[in-house]
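== Folding task for one protein ==

=== Format: two labelled lines per protein ===

==== Paired sequence and structure tokens ====
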Amino acid sequence: MIEVDLHLHTTFSDGTLTPTELVNLCASKGLKVIAISDHDSTEGLPEAMAAAEAHPGLTIIPAIELSTDVPGSEIHMLGYFVDTADQGFQNTLEEFRKGRHNRGELMVEKLNNLGLNISWERVQEISDGGAIGRPHIAQALVEAGYIEFPKQAFDQYIGRNGPAYVERPKLTPQDAVGLLVKNGALPVMAHPTYSQAKSDRDGVAGLLETLQNLRDYGLVGMEVFYGDYTSDQVDYLKEIADELDIVPCGGSDYHASGNPGEPQPGTVGPPMWTVERLRTVRSEISVGRSLS
């Protein structure tokens, strides 16, 4: 039975469920520990924590997901046990969200030039005040009848090689790990290899060497039990995690996107001992800091 899901999104980034709706869903699926990991935002956490009070058996780990840039691709970094009161960290997140806003406007403009007439105002309405992301633009395209499912927007228009794709300022993976370490969060690489359900999600090139390098900066884990990964992918990634002595994490990466085949909360995730290892690592780091 799956009891842990450490990768979930709400309306405060590009999910379609409010924090309360997501927490209630996770509780109904029998989950015991979850991480709300919105993109560039911790603003949904207070509502999620309040909703969890109605579910005494459910624990929420405050988390975040950051996008980082590497040549020709990107790496996403999760941070667990985020200190949401860190004002410097929050100021940095605000700058990231401004970058998302500016990129979104440019992508809508490109889509309009391609003859796909969606409005920036509608994209903002769909985001409902959350950190604007490409899934909001994809939803606008679905509403306008240009595509049937949001995933098709990435396949045809707004994926990395699509005609309406626009870059936005991003950190390097090393900078993201450093930012999370400074905050006191535990950095974990997200979805390190190809995912069929996420068409724009390729594998991280030179994964072993990249992980070794990021571990030197403070990386403590990577996702292994993720989304639609096959048993072969899980075994491969688990071997690497064991070799590097980093924590194998994971989750559904649930957005309630409406895409066919999207993994649901309660269907994929790491074992409970992953959470115990994360807590142990966190405690060891805290002790190390107090002694230094």
Summary: The beta strands are 4-8, 33-36, 59-70, 73-80, 186-189, 221-226, 247-251. The chain has a mean pLDDT of 93. The domain at 4-92+173-291 is CATH 3.20.20.140 (TIM Barrel). The chain has two domains: 4-92+173-291, 94-158.
